[in-house]
Specification:
By secondary structure, the chain is α+β, with helices and mostly antiparallel strands. It has one domain (4-54, 80-228). The chain contains 6 helices and 12 strands. The strands form 4 sheets. Strands 1, 4, 5 and 6 form a 4-stranded antiparallel sheet that branches. It has a 3-stranded mixed sheet with strand order 2-11-12, with helices on one face. α6 (245-255) links the parallel β11 and β12. The chain is globular and about 70 Å long. The model has no long low-confidence stretch (mean pLDDT 90).
């Protein structure tokens, strides 16, 4: 899904922390990135899940008030964006401007950051990482041009790391959800984004499938090349679904090529 409000919220919290920090090369670089993010929020998509497999609040809020399902995914299996649109061919191994629209970064599952202390720890760790890298570059014996190129590389990955933190920040009042996220960032989103009707209007989203390369590809996968839709490990029925529904779900999964996926019922006494 594409949630602009949460993306903006993360950047605002980062800016607030940076405003209270002293002057310094790493901090000044992060201020520059935070004050003028290079990637528009619409290019950022978030897949949200919870590590709480059978939780009353999750059932009430996200699963039809207890009459829905909880789908367990294998977090060790990397995912990639799939698209029904044709990809632009790459000539001679070089990425052209038009082919850049097929590039996407799909991160691993990461825990959401809720508290101010955890936000500060993540940002301070990034500052230390930047300082260490720049100190090493400036003290090296490389020629000035190579040093400048290396420092530019630092500026680029510093933005990526900062954006990752921004996309993981959420208000502490939601900490009970124990949320984890995969963040998807398009370099040029355009043709590979789908749209659906949402509660507050049209919503953009990206379709994720199992990455057949297993190595975290950085190019959109043609839908026809997708082997498995998602690495589903199990399905749990909501506490308000009748026990006889188990057999229907098991048959549904088998008929859709998901034989072996475990099916169980919630143990929450939801009423």
């Amino acid at each position: 899904m594409n949630d602009r409000a949460e993306v903006r919220q993360g950047w605002q919290k980062i800016r607030s922390w940076l405003e209270d920090q002293p002057v310094g090369d790493a901090l000044d670089l992060l201020r520059h990135h935070a004050n003028d993010p290079l990637k528009r929020s619409h290019e950022v998509f978030v897949l949200c899940a919870s590590t709480r497999a059978d939780d009353a609040n999750q059932w009430r809020l996200y699963a039809n008030r207890g009459s829905g399902y909880a789908v367990e995914l294998d977090p060790s299996v990397p995912l990639i964006v799939a698209s029904e649109h044709n990809l632009t061919p790459i000539a001679g191994g070089k990425i052209s401007f038009s082919a850049a629209g097929d590039l996407v970064e799909v991160g691993p599952w990461m825990h959401v950051i809720y508290t101010e202390a955890d936000i500060e720890a993540a940002l301070q760790a990034l500052v230390d990482k930047i300082d260490s890298a720049t100190t090493s570059i400036r003290s090296s014996t490389a020629d000035p041009d190579e040093k400048d190129e290396a420092l530019q590389d630092v500026a680029e990955w510093a933005y990526s790391d900062l954006a990752e933190i921004a996309h993981l920040i959420k208000e502490p009042g939601f900490s009970g959800e124990s949320e984890v996220r995969i963040v998807v960032t398009f370099f040029m989103q355009q043709k590979h984004i789908k749209y659906r009707a949402g509660a507050y209007g049209i919503v953009g989203y990206a379709e994720l499938v199992t990455d057949p390369s297993g190595g975290g590809a950085h190019r959109v996968l043609p839908k026809k090349d997708a082997v498995d839709a998602l690495p589903i490990k199990s399905v749990r029925l909501g506490p308000l679904l009748h026990e006889e529904h188990l057999e229907s779900v098991e048959t549904f999964l088998r008929n859709n090529g998901l034989r072996g996926v475990g099916v169980s019922r919630s143990e929450v006494p939801l009423r």
